[in-house]
Write a structure and sequence with these properties.
Blueprint lengths: L3 E5 L16 E4 L4 E3 L4 E5 L2 E4 L4 E7 L3 H5 L1 E3 L3 E4 L8 E6 L5 E3 L4 E9 L15 E5 L1 H5 L1 H4 L16
Parallel strand pairs: 1-12
Antiparallel strand pairs: 1-5, 2-11, 3-10, 4-9, 6-8, 6-11, 7-9
């Protein structure tokens, strides 16, 4: 069984669970940023992953995000395929009529690793992978080379072609 690897270049960007029974891991912004009214931005999280082929990562907004900040995750749920090697970006939208300032390391979203079922693969036969977290700038910078994939690694829409 292959494990899930979460890699970052900054220890403060490691995903975290705030309670033992939390379902998802909180992820943070790796930059300070301002969103103008009605503006949408791609916000870097500073994390990359490798996971078994029959698994995916789902990113949700933290439940307090709209009420506390006036922000939302534009695509409601981001779905990351197992062959994606790029940095995770958050599509954050300001639905208020005032600028919103967010500081680096603010917990904005949460991620969940989940199995999916392909018609020709029973994920339960392989078991549940453990999750390894690593802070390693060199590995982060060379991530796509160390964990090759058929997919591009340069961001959202990496399989979209014009």
């Amino acid at each position: 069984m292959q494990n899930i690897l979460i890699c970052t270049y900054d220890e403060n960007l490691l995903p975290e669970k705030k309670t033992p029974e939390a379902i998802a891991w909180d992820i943070k912004t790796s930059i300070d940023f301002t969103l103008e009214p009605w503006e949408l931005k791609l916000i870097p999280s500073g994390i990359k992953t490798v996971m078994p082929v029959w698994w995916c990562c789902k990113i949700y907004a933290r439940s307090s995000l709209p009420c506390k900040t006036g922000l939302m995750l534009w695509n409601s749920v981001a779905l990351i395929d197992s062959d994606y090697r790029g940095e995770y970006f958050l599509q954050i939208y300001n639905f208020t009529n005032k600028p919103i300032i967010i500081e680096k390391y603010t917990r904005l979203c949460q991620l969940e690793f989940a199995p999916h079922h392909w018609w020709d693969h029973n994920f339960w036969s392989e078991g549940i992978p453990s999750i390894e977290m690593k802070v390693d700038k060199e590995e982060y910078d060379g991530f796509a080379e160390k964990y090759p994939s058929e997919r591009w690694a340069w961001g959202l829409w990496s399989t979209w072609k014009m």
